[in-house]
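Handoff note, outgoing to incoming analyst
You'll be picking up this chain. Sequence as last confirmed:
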Amino acid sequence: MNVDELADELAEALVDDPVVVDPLFGNGRTEEVREALTEAVEELDFPAYVVLVPRPEGLSASDPDRELATLLHERIGGDGVYVVHTDTTGYGDAVVSFGDVPAADVRYEVSLRQPAGEIRELNPAGHAARDLAVIAADGRLSQADYEAYAEETIWQRPPEWDVMTREVPDTGAYAFFTTLAFVVVGGSAWLVLRTIARWRETGLVPQPRAALPVEGPAQVRARAERELDALAERLAATADRPLSAETRELVDGSYDTARGVLADAGTEERDLADLVGALVLVRVADRALDAADAAARPRSRRASRRAPLPAYLPCYFDPRHGEAVRRHTVPVGDRRLAVPACRHCSDTLDGIHTGPPHPMLVPAGLLGRPRPWYEQDTVWARTGYGASVDELWPHVAGDRRRVR
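Most recent structure output, in case you need it:
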């Protein structure tokens, strides 16, 4: 889709709702961010539009966000302030006034009066909300109100930590309406997708390695149903076998949740992430039973030195690749983040000059274009299909309850 086509679709969407937020800018909670921005726009006494979407090809290199704002105004017409942000890896944005509305440039005057260094960085949505407030106040926003945006969790960038250790950040660093575990998931997923976005946008390598053959939604569903049936038979055959309460909860919870996900999913491309999630949940339960069986078997002295079976973790880049063989670190700013990778993707990452691994693509965003699964605002992206949480099924079951 070229820039003009995208501008046409965005303009049509903005007529119905003045705020468009792509999941990549949703900070792990796109709908809440969109609603907060919509509320901020509705409180203004002048028309305003907010567009946070990944940068399409074809915009000018010098000021792409301003160009997109101009294209949108040409299609919508009338007066309005346009806030446009398309950079998935940086801060740049454009705030442009058209017609009889307050001048957007006043935001620069206010920012120049601020002391160096804010307490916390704002995400793009936070910058948009604060810029609109400054413009509405004609630059007379109080210092306390200006600084308050950096204290609102929904406007903050997630804290950075090493997902490999799964060390939970201090609760005061990033608390919201949901559990702390949810926050850990959202932050780590955001860091990874930001890194992959940087790979794509900077054109890190010219010759991507060939992708592994993978199954489509119908094939994934068939496989998940077969493995779920086999798991049900295994559970029935071992119903009387003693299991630890922890293992029993993990197995039963994963099985029941996988069955529910499959019951609600179809075989369309938009169902792929859920179908893969159901398959992962079944394999998590199977692995837990395997580990219990191994622990119950009599062991020789040599066998007793072996490490217990690890929990099942799929390849982060495309969970359809199967089990991850090791965690692989990827650069995120001046840090490195560890994600599980299958043998193929791990080998690809070892030879990074051949290109980043091919991710699983699913329809996403306003236009339903194929995008990597980890850029979506879903429970699978927030949990990394289990890579960022101790147990996957409670998060999936909780998300299903919230949706219903």
